[in-house]
From TrEMBL:
<feature type="transmembrane region" description="Helical">
    <location>
        <begin position="204"/>
        <end position="227"/>
    </location>
</feature>
<feature type="transmembrane region" description="Helical">
    <location>
        <begin position="95"/>
        <end position="114"/>
    </location>
</feature>
<feature type="transmembrane region" description="Helical">
    <location>
        <begin position="21"/>
        <end position="41"/>
    </location>
</feature>
<keyword id="KW-1133">Transmembrane helix</keyword>
<dbReference type="GO" id="GO:0005886">
    <property type="term" value="C:plasma membrane"/>
</dbReference>
<dbReference type="InterPro" id="IPR003744">
    <property type="entry name" value="YhhQ"/>
</dbReference>
<protein>
    <recommendedName>
        <fullName>Probable queuosine precursor transporter</fullName>
    </recommendedName>
</protein>
<keyword id="KW-0472">Membrane</keyword>
<dbReference type="GO" id="GO:0022857">
    <property type="term" value="F:transmembrane transporter activity"/>
</dbReference>
<keyword id="KW-1003">Cell membrane</keyword>
<feature type="transmembrane region" description="Helical">
    <location>
        <begin position="172"/>
        <end position="198"/>
    </location>
</feature>
<comment type="similarity">
    <text>Belongs to the vitamin uptake transporter (VUT/ECF) (TC 2.A.88) family. Q precursor transporter subfamily.</text>
</comment>
<feature type="transmembrane region" description="Helical">
    <location>
        <begin position="134"/>
        <end position="160"/>
    </location>
</feature>
<comment type="function">
    <text>Involved in the import of queuosine (Q) precursors, required for Q precursor salvage.</text>
</comment>
<keyword id="KW-0812">Transmembrane</keyword>
<feature type="transmembrane region" description="Helical">
    <location>
        <begin position="61"/>
        <end position="83"/>
    </location>
</feature>
<keyword id="KW-0813">Transport</keyword>
Amino acid sequence: MARVSTQGSNQNHATFAHVGRSYYPIFVAVFTAVLLISNIAATKGVAFFEGEELSFGPLQILPLITDGGFFLFPLAYIIGDVLSEVYGFKAARRAIYTGFACLILAALSFWMLLALPPAEFYVNQESLEAVVGVYPRLLLAGLAGYLVGQLLNAGVLVLIKEKTKEKHLWARLIGSTIVGEFFDTLIFCSIAAGAIGISTWEDFVNYVIVGFLWKTLAEIVVMPLTYRVINYVKKHEPSYSVPAGD
């Protein structure tokens, strides 16, 4: 076991653990924050081009109905791609489990918060319930979709990287996104559909396809940024090394 010297110039200083130079803890922190914030933002329904109508067969494109977390949740998959590409499946899985645990903690905390008796001067109880109220079916849908989707996203990316090594990063990013986002969306919609008023197969299929396409396209659009982040981290991460010949 390593010992901390108390001789010489160190004897008058307190002892502290060493903080490594890895970017991993930063990504885990941002990853978890994105999940928590997007879950709260998702309580607001959002409609784009509400006065327009555009359909392809049974698929309704416009108006585009989504939730307030639409612009932020894809970032969780982008960070998940960085974690998987740079640190591997085990490290990405650890981050996913950390985010999962924090989502459960947030849900329990909000449930306890709403159960506390409001002070006489507090007049925002109903507004608070509308924003952070825990709906068991929607909570289960979100947690199940997130866990399965993120694990599949990480697993597929790492499997493709085992075959392609450092080449064809675009194939890993797109391939993992398609699989992860599809099952994330499918599981969430399957569990949550009844709770949000979807009662027909036509509406269900539309809900799944539009949600999946939006999330996947969003990640493809920001892929150049994902490339830059991954390349930067690989160059500056002390423990990352590229095998000879790659």
